[in-house]
Amino acid sequence: MNRLFLTAALPALLLSGCAAGAPERPIYGLAPDRVEGPLEPPAAAAPPHFPADLTPAGVRAADDHLALEEVEGAGAMAFVAESNRRALAALEEDPRYETFRRQAFDILSATDRIPAPVFLGEGIGNFWQDAANPKGIWRRTTLDSYRSDATRWETLLDIDALARAEGRDWVWKGADCLAPDETRCLVSLSDGGKDAVVVREFDIPTRSFVDGGFVLPEGKHRLEWLDRDTLLVATDFGPDTLTESGYPFIVKSLTRGQTLAEATEVYRGDIGDGGYGVSPGVYRDGDGRIEAVLFHRPLDTFRAETWRWVDGRAVRLNLPERVGIHGTMGGQLVFSLDEDWVIPGGPMPAGALIIAGLDELSQAEMPRTNGNPGVIFAPGERQSIDSVRVLSDSVLAVVSDNVVGTLKRFNMATDDARHPHWRATDIAVPANSAVGLGDSSKSRGEVFVSTQGFLTPPTLSLAEVSAARITELRSAPAKFDASTHVVEQFEATSSDGTKIPYFVTRPRDMAMDGSAPTILFGYGGFQVSFPPAYKPEMGRLWLENGGVFVQANIRGGGEFGPQWHQSVLKENRQLAFDDFAAVAADLHRRGITSPRRTGIYGRSNGGVLTSVTMTQHPELINAAVIESPLIDMLRYHELPAGASWMGEYGDPRLPEEAAWIARYSAYQQLRPDADYPRVYITTNTRDDRVHPGHARKFAARLAAMGHDHLYYEETAGGHSNDADPVANARRWARHYVYLAQQLMD
Asked: Which residues are catalytic?
């Protein structure tokens, strides 16, 4: 099985730096703690648009901007057009805009970037965008050629040419190629960047779509190759086949030549399921033979059942509901635990990497035999497992230690047959780095490995897992002058006393007098970790102009394992917001910046964070970039695909849960008499993951209350906002013009 996806660079390394005038110290030794106490949001009377009652009907009745939820409604698009006109006048007419746009475009379209590789048959595949190919080309080469200074690429599919020929705004969303030869692929194309895609079968030898091949209409499909003539597909099969979130809950077997209506059902969840929909998984050995077919049935955002397809029937595996499946090794399953697992012989801890026999897991009660299931690795208190690749006889994993990446190979020790155990071998990576795993090949026993940092460009290497070594393949050139800046790690104390780590990238000789313009970034959700990464556009447009960049590792992420995430779910969500506010206040106490010079940035779930920070603590900031955001948290479940996230935030239809969501939901908490900074809200019309109604309504209510703000809505690109480098360069230029206006002028 091989997938080629256009994704962001893998998280990577961190650089050292010492405080000006201070003795040199280890990079990740924490700076002295100067926190004076937790912050608390001010108490006040209910805002004017706060619902009289928190039932769905009451929330709807209090909403004076419901028309903006109509994605392409006439009134909504008129609002977008006028808002865009005003925003573009303020941002793109700024004398810095064109310089920023050109610098960003040069970075995003540069031909000296590292082509992100995946294993493709006997060679290497890559999807590439540049100035000549803004929509991109899918191409391949050999590994030897990839290693060379003059790589010879063969174009497989030109998305720019395809879009022109078909008159569609095609955006590449990846290819799934059938092992072992990987000559037949399922290519996913999005119209305008939406998550929903059209799927077409592609033949690599002829470099063409297969005449009469598999074709799926636009949808949020979950699909896998079973064999050359059969797919396992979860999709929209007609009325009552999608959940409330708009995701499939039925898996069918689709044979070549059949229509979706003729496909044979092989697994069914329930229309009331939560999460992102049922999905099939086909796991193979190095020769392409199937080791297991599994069905993942989400019950909510994080809880799920795991089923195994055996002899034409589905058997539920005896696994806890919070697990992450990483792969198979013969008849064994490798997975990580997001909750404690109590089995005969004793519990296995949350956060641990586990291996267990599939046949044993298929039994009604998990038997505990010698070494089965076995703990491959159990992280310590400040550790977490970041990513895992399962090979034929070993496991490669990135283990984060206080947000520092280490690379470990695990294989079964054979020195004691009576007490089998897994032995860890450290693989050398650059010191003080974050590490990311790319594509892997069981047949080759190889994995692509990346390292990078705030001030260090990415390096791509190839890991030979059996030899426990990596060989450098490529190193990206610097895109900004990093010699003037240093990186430090600090901790802030949150409202409940928890220590929250954060990284500061600042000018080496900066005066600690609060005058430095500073961007504070955070996310804090869905167990997504944010180790530092090289952000070339940020370095060129912000750091080189004297700015400071701060990344806060607040709770809700996965930096310290499942508990770091689960401690702020649902009724405890306020703690994540407190963490972020505590970091901002700590920056001010240390003299790194001041409220006048502090701006915050967050997108998607980070839009919840930034909008809440703005409404709860406007005194801490003078700018906020709120991008692709969730904001109306009392109606998020009604805006596709919001209901899939109720495991994270809670269910606003339940009175108790609506009560604690309402206490922070920024759309309802806006006040006409508050002193908010001029904020910049931006989203995308084609975003079918986070509905544009969130951003539109927030902007409209700010306007109705007389608060200065900017709102811009891109009309193509989807949630990722990276459909092509031309649009993305404009996007980053607008961001940094706004931040410069608010924090530097």
From this structure: 604, 719
